[in-house]
Structure formats: C-alpha cells, structure tokens
Amino acid sequence: MSVNQDYERSIREAEPMIEPDDPDSALPSPRLGADSLIWKFYGDSRGILGFQRLAGTENCIEQLGQAVLDHSVIFDDFLGRAKRTGPPVMKTVYSTEPQKWGRTVRDFHRDIKGTISDGSRYHALNPELFYWAHATFVDQVLYITDTFIRRLSYAEKVQIFEESKVWYDLYGVSSRSQPQTYEEFLEYWDDMLDRFVPHKTVVYATGYIRQGLPRPKKIPAPVWKVASAPLNAFLRTVIVGTLPQQMRDVCGLKWDAKREKNFQRFAATMRALNPAFNRLPIKWLYVPWAYQAWREIGVDPRPLYNKRAA
C-alpha cells in the first residue's frame, strides 16, 4: 500500500477520531512486555543518537510542524519540551499501566488544532497526523537498533512492526491510516518523506547543527571555540548522518560522500562494541523508565535477543 490515496482529503478533515473504551470488556488491555523486541531496544540509551531523526522527521510534515509552533514552547524551552513529552510515551511501553499512559499522551493532543499555510485546518488527533507521529517512534526503534546496536534480520523487523500495532492501540486513536504489513510500512514511510517541507519549527530545531553549538555563558569564547570544534564535527557527521536525505535537504544540512563514509565507520564501530555495551550495568544501558520496568519484573535484558535471528 502507498499512503492512503485519500490522504490529502483525510488530513484536511482535521477531525479527531478517538476510539471509545469498553469498560465492560472481559479482554485484557493490550500491552508489550519483556518478550517483545520493542522492550529490548526502545529504551536503550543509545537511542539518544536518534533524537534529531525522531523529532525532525515528525515535524517535517507541515501540520505537525505548525502544531508545535502554535501550541508548544519549543522556541523558548526546547529541552524542557523534550523532557515533558518523552516520559509519557516511554511509560506507554514500559509502565504497568500502559493504556492509562497511552490515553494520557492522546489527551495531551485534544486541543492541538489550527491552520497551515494554505489555510486548511489540522487537528493532532486526526488519524493521519497521529499515526505519522507514532511511525517516527517505530522508525526510531528499527533504525537505531539496526544502525548502532546490531543488524536486525528481516523477521525481526517484521516483529517490531507487528508489535508497534499493539503500541499504537494503547493510544486509543483510530488506526485507519496504519499500514498492515511491514512492507506497507516501508512504502508508507518513503511516501511520507516525499511530503517533507522546510517548516520553521524543524529549521529552527536544526539551527544548532548549521551554526554550531551555542556557547555556555560561563565558558570564555576562546575556550569554547576550541572545545566545541569536535562536538560540532560529531553533530555534523553522526547526527546529520542519521537523517533521511529529504530532511537534510529541507533543513539545509550539508552532506557528502566523505561524511557518509565517516558516519558508516562510526556506526560499524558502535555495532562492534555491542558486546561491551551489554556488559554495562543495566542502569547505564537503559533510560530510567525502561530500567525500572526491567528491575520490577526481575529480568536481566542484557542477554536477551543479542544474536541476529536466522
């Protein structure tokens, strides 16, 4: 499947489509657990390498970029916004009340609506928008794992996609635009990349890459000039290397064969170091919400799913 042929019409409906809860259902709420690849890899600390890919690809779609501009404090408190939005999504996967947290994430977006440059309306709980936001998290698990942790087999990629359907169900938003197979998801992803635009939100959010990291007030300018050079080089190779070319293009981020070669060398080194990472304490290997979940169930995730499936 390609993106729904009615995508443009559907997204411009700008209508929230919330799935009703059934309090009388005898069936348990869907949830992910320690037997899932998403539990194993989503909360891995190495996911920080994909922070710009995650946030940027989401906001390269005009409606979502505009929603952030209209309703967020991103321009005044970029890191604060990340700290407020990240934990509830993480708890949707790792808490003992995933549906509660999924609904919390959904309800954050009930009043997120407005108009874009052509005057058409948007609503964050329109299924086409909400699923795209979710798809960027699915992509993060797939991309970061396969690039920086270890190569995934095709079967594992399919499994992660199938698990992502359970994850999406926890939000209680219509799944009408959700691809049904991994192959459909790949086609959907490629189609969405072709819809990227240089929205002010994402151009602003990548300014630190083009201009260099801002100097902390307490560090003298000459010292920062020397100290920031390797940091900026890292950003312009490793962080930009994680981005789809369509995002580099709309954000004006330079890329060439030399940087691609250096990026692939770094990624290969990270994968080669995976056995060493898996000897780290769990508290270091996982972000706090994932670490707490593994500790509560008494499972050591380090030996799980370390070898590529046949």
Automatic annotation (TrEMBL):
What's the protein name? Oxygenase MpaB family protein
The keyword Hydrolase is assigned to this record = no
Q: Where is this region: Disordered?
A: 1-29
Q: Could you list this entry's UniProt keywords, alphabetically sorted.
A: Oxidoreductase
Tell me if Oxidoreductase is a UniProt keyword of this record: yes
In which residue ranges is the amino acid composition biased (Basic and acidic residues)? Answer: 1-15
Q: Which residues form the ER-bound oxygenase mpaB/mpaB'/Rubber oxygenase catalytic domain?
A: 39-272
Enzyme Commission no = 1.-.-.-
PANTHER family given in the database record: BLR2777 PROTEIN, ER-BOUND OXYGENASE MPAB_MPAB'_RUBBER OXYGENASE CATALYTIC DOMAIN-CONTAINING PROTEIN
